[in-house]
Write a structure and sequence with these properties.
This protein is an alpha/beta fold and 239 residues long. It has one domain: Rossmann fold (3-Layer(aba) Sandwich), CATH 3.40.50.1360. It is 33% helix and 22% strand. The two termini are 13 Å apart.
Length: 239
């Protein structure tokens, strides 16, 4: 069932896990296919975590021209792309290893400082084809990407005019021991026409309702995705 729960958010409720996985993958495939048809190539930004991995795997079963698809990340922990706790590793394991020919741009580049990695990410974002979609998650604290409420660098990241920023999440329990991050900013979200928020469980739906009743982006940074210009945020949810 699909319903507009505000002028900024469309909620797609799926009956079960299988319907959720197929629905997310089908929407992603359709957006990529359309961009390939219109522009010859398509670019998307993916998030890590266990929630989206099954949808990434299902996406690879769609018969797209993967050599025409470029993949980037919405955020990353300050870890080597080969580290199993990195978002790069999850995307490679669940998607890239199955989508032969797809091109991947990690955010962390071994041997570079975090400042240099952010600089490179911003240069690539400014000179690459704009993404046609970004896949996001949301924590129970209202964070998305690595925009963590309460982190000392959050105001800087929210105000940045660049697509990516470094963020120190020291003091935010949900960041665990991975304090240093590279994250998409509101400026980075703004040009992306299709934003997909993947949620599972009643608690996440309750958090979303709380977020929508608020206008405090520092308390609920997921508002950066909700308030971005363009199409309403599309939330795929199942219990």
């Amino acid at each position: 069932m699909t319903a507009a729960i505000s002028d900024r958010v469309t909620l797609i409720r799926h009956a079960d896990d299988e319907a959720w996985i197929e629905g997310v993958a089908a929407e992603m495939a359709g957006l990529l296919e359309q961009d390939i048809a219109n522009h010859g190539r398509a670019r998307m930004l993916l998030s890590g975590g266990t929630t989206p991995a099954p949808a990434y795997q299902r996406l690879t079963e769609h018969p797209l021209e993967w050599a025409r698809v470029e993949v980037g990340l919405a955020d990353e922990r300050w870890l080597s792309p080969q580290d199993h706790d990195s978002n790069a590793w999850l995307v490679r394991d669940s998607f890239l290893n199955r989508a032969e020919g797809a091109h991947f741009d990690p955010l962390v580049r071994v041997g570079q400082s975090i400042a240099d990695c952010v600089h490179t990410a911003n240069l690539m974002a400014e000179h690459s084809r704009p993404p046609c979609l970004v896949v996001l998650g949301m924590g129970n604290d209202g964070h998305t990407a690595s925009l963590f409420p309460g982190s000392k660098d959050l105001p800087h990241a929210l105000a940045s005019t660049h697509p990516y920023a470094a963020l120190d999440a020291t003091g935010c329990p949900v960041a665990k021991h991975w304090h240093l991050r590279i994250t998409l900013t509101p400026a980075g979200l703004a040009p992306i026409p299709n934003r997909l928020l993947l949620l599972r469980g009643k608690q996440k739906l309750d958090v979303l309702e709380t977020v929508l009743a608020s206008n405090d982006i520092e308390q609920y940074p997921v508002l950066a995705a909700i308030n971005a210009p363009g199409n309403p945020l599309r939330v795929h949810w199942c219990a």
